[in-house]
Amino acid sequence: MLVVDFGAQYAQLIARRVREARVYSEIVPHSMPVAEMLARDPAAIILSGGPSSVYAEGAPQVDPKLFDAGVPVFGICYGFQAMARALGGEVAHTGTREYGRTPLRVAADPGVLLRELAPEFEVWMSHGDACAAAPAGFAVTASSAAPVAVFEDVAGRRAGVQFHPEVLHTVHGQTVLTRFLYDIAGLAPTWTPANIIEEQVAAVRALVGDRQVICGLSGGVDSAVAAALVHRAVGDQLTCVFVDHGLLRAGEAEQVENDYVAATGIRLKVVDARERFLGALAGVTDPEEKRKIIGREFIRVFEAAAREVDAERDVEFLVQGTLYPDVVESGGGTGTANIKSHHNVGGLPDDLRFALVEPLRTLFKDEVRALGLELGLPEAMVWRHPFPGPGLAIRIIGAVDEERLATLRAADLIAREELTAAGLDREVWQFPVVLLADVRSVGVQGDGRTYGHPVVLRPVSSEDAMTADWSRLPYDVVARISTRITNEVAEVNRVTLDVTSKPPGTIEWE
Ligand code: XMP
């Protein structure tokens, strides 16, 4: 089904909720001509919320032709008002403004969307104008301060809600959305991990045929799932390359080299580039300089490995773990195409051009994780927190060397172990541990004075890493981490907690 984006920040959330109801959804811009939308043969259409008033100059309108095609339509917030207006209902500047949690009063006849829920419950609103009269043929099944907050025309397979069913603050929001999908639009819940795998496997096979594919593994979930999917499709035609730059956390290289290979049976070429990276980073303290060096070395090492694989096997495709939000945000096509052909990939040189295979291009992160589990990947990999490409190098404030990496790895492992033991992995978005390698402070341990380094704990909660807040970890968890680190990591005699949000701080320290 299609989610028509009227410029609200909620379109992606709506698409995700629809998929949580196991119905495949794609986002299209409201500027797309209706003929083009219909040409995609959607099983249903959702009109999303939008920031503007339907009366504002230049406000996006709904082309009435959308309603002539017999496709089920659901309007949300702005989409609800635009729908009301296009079908002859009345939308007015009533002076009614509702923002945030609002009580919804269900009519005596609750209809299909609201049947057997509650006479009144809280929903999330965000609107200025209000719908004063539903279009002919629609039953009004709830009101708020606005006289018409929910309407439906079950026979015509159309309905709309003034509130935002996709946000968690709306009680019964997912139920209402699901009822539109199943009971009004008549859709079936077929978008399951097993079906997604089957579909993508078929698509990759059709694209790749009997040709050879290469994939770089980073240790992160996206590349791991993308490679596992492609492997399921074309088996031995896939070669994976893992560049061990020595900047990963404790156990992560082994996870790729042992657990992942054991789980998938993938052919893996491991490049041990630890010395090379450490050599290039020796004495470098400037954050940007570190990043540039790591980026440059990474491309060089990967390129050399890719050339070797290419020489042996004549590679034509490169797997990339691009996700749907990247595709939507870059304004890219929302089609299901698995290929952007002959792209100059990730800084690889012109004579080493591969066509792209992007089997995750239509998926959200939570779907990628579900697929990873379905494909039998190690849980630790599937649920790994985001981790920056330059790795621990940008979590050592000061120059990077083997000894400092070992210190940070030990402290980081303790923090991760305790977070997991407290059952907080999924509540925390990311948990960098930072070593202030150029700072020393005085401490006392046993009978002796110590002069060690501080580490900083930086647990953050976030939706997308664009903004973040520091996580209010329970103090006993923080205390356990602190005690263990200062006891078990000899070089560290002080543990501090970073209580800065983003902005003004960034998540990483460098
Ligand atoms: P900041 O520190 O800018 O980080 O708040 C935002 C998110 O991006 C991650 N990050 C990176 N990821 N390569 C990556 O793949 C990088 O160079 C990089 N730098 C930061 C960071 O961990 C956080 O999730």
| Strand line-up in the sheet with most strands | 2-1-3-4-11-10-9-6-7
Structural class: alpha/beta
Report the end-to-end length measured between terminal Cα atoms: 42 Å
**How much strand content do the residues show?**
15-25%
Domain module count: 3
- Counting DSSP E segments of at least 2 residues, the number of strands comes to 22
**Main beta sheet: strand number and arrangement?**
9 strands, mixed
Residue ranges: pLDDT <50 for 5 or more in a row? 333-345
Number of helical regions: 14
| CATH fourth-tier homologous superfamily of the largest domain | HUPs
Please compute the radius of gyration using only Cα atoms: 27 Å
Shape category: globular
Helix residue percentage = 25-40%
> Which cofactors or ions or other ligands sit in this model?
xanthosine-5'-monophosphate
Average pLDDT taken over every residue: 93
CATH architecture name of the largest domain: 3-Layer(aba) Sandwich
- CATH class category name of the largest domain: Alpha Beta
Q: Could you tell me the CATH topology label of the largest domain.
A: Rossmann fold
